[in-house]
């Protein structure tokens, strides 16, 4: 699953802050957590490695978290940290700006220059760790344009991003499929690029990034309706408020039509069930019907074309 949990509560009080500092450096970037006394420090961090990005949930006591010039010099990596406030409030500073976050808001910091996060009451925050090389595939503005800008969770796209992240987190125990993980990462990054394009003075999200946001939104719709035998390009276009022509354009960059993409995903899910011992009691045609196929001979033919063997041979491997 790629989920790890760290807690300070299992340690002696005089060891808790030191342990916490070690963990946040390991999981995010070089950081130091400052508190007003030498008292015990309550902190819990859960991380979820989701393909190209990492999503974490932090619950901790008041502190002043700093990524100083000295720590910048110790870190050669280029990562963006998206701070998503879920409970409490925080003040995020970088590049001469301040972002005061309330629940639902988020902002972005970067490891290549100093930043700080301050909160004087206990907080809960989600943190997305995004490698610079990954974010730059979706958004190419200079980093100074996007750092420490508050993005409101009350605005339309901001609220969509926030709701998506919260719902994903609530279901992370049920998401363990590499293809799904890739699609989820792409959806998050494409939506984030579209949002950054809206809030920066000279947003330069490429048109391809905007299309990627639409494409990933449609892919998520396809995933939810994959078992529906009536799932067709025209039905997909209508449900997502786009024209059939625009739908074709969205999938052209991947060298596949929408209908072929649906068939490919269905075949992948059938193959996964055929390899699953928990589904060995099901007939092959039952599995095919489960994933939206309704013509046995057509299913057998395209399965063999895709996997170069019959469904029965695939199950026996």
Whole-Å distance between the termini? 25 Å
Percentage of helical residues? Answer: 40-55%
Identify the overall geometry. Answer: elongated
The CATH homologous superfamily name of the largest domain equals: Jelly Rolls
Low-confidence sequence ranges: none
Instruction: Determine and state the CATH class of the largest domain.
Output: Mainly Beta
Written account of the structure:
- This protein has 317 residues and is α+β, with helices and mostly antiparallel strands.
- The protein has 2 domains: 3-224, Jelly Rolls (Sandwich), CATH 2.60.120.10; 264-316, Arc Repressor Mutant, subunit A (Orthogonal Bundle).
- The chain has helices at residues 13-27, 69-74, 132-135, 156-170, 178-199, 207-224, 233-239, 244-252, 258-274, 284-290, 296-307, 311-316; strands at residues 3-7, 32-34, 43-50, 53-60, 63-67, 79-87, 90-94, 97-101, 106-110, 115-119, 123-131.
- It has a 6-stranded antiparallel beta sheet, sandwiched between helices. The protein has a 5-stranded antiparallel beta sheet with strand order 2-5-10-7-8.
- The longest helix is centred in the middle third of the chain and has 22 residues, at 178-199.
- The model has no long low-confidence stretch (mean pLDDT 88).
């Amino acid at each position: 699953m790629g989920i790890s949990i760290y807690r300070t509560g299992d340690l002696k009080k005089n060891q808790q802050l030191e342990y916490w500092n070690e963990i946040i450096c390991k999981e995010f970037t070089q950081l130091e957590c400052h508190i007003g006394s030498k008292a015990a420090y309550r902190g819990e961090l859960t991380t979820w490695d989701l393909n190209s990005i990492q999503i974490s949930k932090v619950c901790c006591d008041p502190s002043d978290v700093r990524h100083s010039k000295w720590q910048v010099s110790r870190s050669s990596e280029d990562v963006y940290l998206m701070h998503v406030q879920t409970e409490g409030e925080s003040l995020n500073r970088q590049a001469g700006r301040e972002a005061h976050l309330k629940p639902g808001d988020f902002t972005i910091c970067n490891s290549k220059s100093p930043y700080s996060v301050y909160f004087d009451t206990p907080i809960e925050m989600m943190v997305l760790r995004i490698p610079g090389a990954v974010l730059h595939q979706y958004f190419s503005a200079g980093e100074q344009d996007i750092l420490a800008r508050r993005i409101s969770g009350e605005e339309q796209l901001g609220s969509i991003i926030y709701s998506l992240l919260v719902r994903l987190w609530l279901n992370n125990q049920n998401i363990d499929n590499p293809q799904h993980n890739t699609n989820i990462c792409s959806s998050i990054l494409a939506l984030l690029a579209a949002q950054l394009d809206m809030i920066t003075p000279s947003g330069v999200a490429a048109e391809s990034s905007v299309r990627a946001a639409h494409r990933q939104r449609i892919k998520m719709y396809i995933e939810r309706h994959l078992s529906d035998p009536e799932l067709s390009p025209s039905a997909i276009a209508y449900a997502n408020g786009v024209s059939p022509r625009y739908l074709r354009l969205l999938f052209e960059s991947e060298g596949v039509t929408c209908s072929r993409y649906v068939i490919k995903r269905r075949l992948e899910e059938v193959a996964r069930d055929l390899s699953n011992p928990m589904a060995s009691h099901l007939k092959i045609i039952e599995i095919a019907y489960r994933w939206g196929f309704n013509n046995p001979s057509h299913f057998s033919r395209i399965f063999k074309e895709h996997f170069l063997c019959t469904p029965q041979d695939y199950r026996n491997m």
